[in-house]
Design goal:
Elements: E1 5-13, E2 22-24, E3 39-49, E4 64-68, H1 79-98, E5 102-112, E6 132-133, H2 137-147, H3 153-157, E7 161-169, E8 179-182, H4 189-192, E9 193-199, E10 204-210, E11 218-220, E12 228-236, E13 249-251, E14 265-274
Parallel strand pairs: 2-9, 3-11
Antiparallel strand pairs: 1-3, 4-12, 5-14, 6-10, 7-12, 7-14, 8-11, 8-13, 9-10
Family: Belongs to the asaB hydroxylase/desaturase family.
GO molecular function: oxidoreductase activity
Protein name: Methyltransferase
Length: about 280
Amino acid sequence: MTSDVITTLNYFVAPPDGSRPYTDVSGNNATGKLIRNWGEDPHDMQVEDVRGKEELYKLDNAGFQYGREAPKHTSFLNDDEIEREYYPESIDLIKRVTGATKVVIFDHTIRRRRPGESDDNPQKRQPVSRAHVDQTPAASIARVHRHLPPTEAPSLLRRRFQIINLWRPISHAAVDWPLALCDFRSVDFEKDLMPVALIYPDREGETFGVRYNPNHQWKYLKAMTPEEFVLIKCSDSIQDGSVARLTPHTAFQDPNTPEGAPPRESIELRTLVFYD
C-alpha cells in the first residue's frame, strides 16, 4: 500500500510591482522593516511516497538521493559536539556516496517544530513550509570563495563542484511535517526558478523561489527514521543538461499524520563538494 498524499504546498509569487525579490534576514515587524517583498502561492499537489523505490532517485538524475546509515553522534544538543563528532562522520559519508574527494561543511541547522511558536531566531528554527532551493549558481560560487582560502578556491572551481545538504530526522521518525523533494526532471529551470536576494547585515546571498508548475513531481520517504538520510543537491557546476542541477524542497503537512505524533526534529548540514 502506498502512502501518497494530496497536500497544500506553498510556491513563490514575485512582487507585484516587478521589483527584485528579497528576504531581509534581520528585518522584523517591530521596526517596520519588511522581512520580504514576495508572496506565497499555495497549490494542492500530490506527494508520492517512494519507500521501496528509493533506488530510482539519485543525485545525478533526480537531484536527491536516499540512504541508510545510523549516525554515531545521536544527541544533537550541542553545536560544538555536533561539529566535533557529527561533521567528520558526515564528510566521510558524503565522500563514500558521491565519490567526491573534498567535502567542506559550512553550516548546519537543527529544526524542531514547535506548534504555536514563532520561528524568529536561529535557536528556534522550524521546518520551512515553502518550496525553495538554498543557493543559486552565483551564490554557490560565492560560497566557495567565502569558505575556502583564496589560494584554493580558483583551482577548486575549475573542476566539478556541488552544494549538497545532508538531511536526516533526529530523535524519532519524521512522521510529522515530513520533507518533500521535487524531481529535477519535472522542473523547468528557466521558468520555475526565481532568484531571491537574501540580505544579511554584512553581505548578500541568493536563493531560488519556486514558481508553481503543475508538472512538478514531488516525492517523500514516509516516516524517515534517524538511521536514514537524504542528500539534497542545491547546485552543480555541470550545467549542460546531462545531470540534475538541483532539487526544490519543502516541508509539508501530511494529512495522514496520526494524532499525537511527536513534532518533527531534523538536522541538515550544508556542504561544498569537490571532485578531482
